[in-house]
Structure formats: C-alpha cells, structure tokens
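Q: Could you fold this chain for me?
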Amino acid sequence: MRSNPERSRSAWPTTSRWLVHLGLLAFAAASLATLQLLHIRNAIHADIGLVFAGLVVVHLAQRRHRIARMVAQLMRLRPRVERELRLLASDAILTVITINVVVSGILDWGRGAPLLLPLPTPFDRWHLTSSVVLVVYLVVHVTRRWRRIRRSTIR
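A: Sure. Below is the predicted structure, expressed as structure tokens.
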C-alpha cells in the first residue's frame, strides 16, 4: 500500500503546527508549575521560560506568510478586514507580553530579587504581574481559536 505523497507533504506542516501549539501550552503550564520549585532552583523556571519564548518565535515564523500578507494589506490601505486586524493585533500583543515576561524574568534573575513596580501588592512585582497577564491572554487566545488550531496548516 503506497501513501499519497501529496497528503504526506501537507500532513507534516499540520502536525508540526499542532506540535508547536501543544508545546506552547505545555511549556506555559510547566513554567507555572515550576514556580513552586523557585525556592529550590530558579534556573529550572528560567530554562522552561526560555524554551517557551523560543516556541513563540517558532509559532510566529510558522505564521510569517499570514503576517506578511496582513501587513501588506495594511500598507496598501485596502479595505481592512476585521478578522485579519484582530489576528495581527493579537500576535503583536502576545509578542510584546512575552518579551516583557522574558525581560522581567532575566532582570529579576540577574538581581536575585524581584523588581518592584509602584503598584499595590500583589501587583507590585513586575515579572509576576506580566506573567499573570500573559497567562490570562493565552487562555483567552487559545479558547477563542481552539477549533481553528486543530485544522490549521503551515503555508
């Protein structure tokens, strides 16, 4: 029995994209789970967080054609499609929040203590606050796209 080469070519990008989504969810959960280990080993949390940030880069690279097309449409001032703008804005927000979490984590790790913000407790810790914002945004992002994530392909 021979497999259809066209089907196997299109199956790998779908599987690859699904694995990246699964990895993002798993490493986000693992990063939160390692918070209990911080009194033992801060490096575990940092390593898992950096793997998560790397998967965000892979996720955005997989979406490069869609992102480029949306940016090109914006540059040509074509009629804006609401869904495309929402997706572009969502990717930009996730990127900024993720960079914020990584930078605040690196600064906290370098100092050996959390950087404090002029906000009321418990929102005064920069890395903690930005991480909570990222988790909430990721939960909303994934739940709104759950059906499409399963069917998505890389072009």
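A (continued): Helices lie at 5-33, 42-62, 64-75, 82-111, 126-151.
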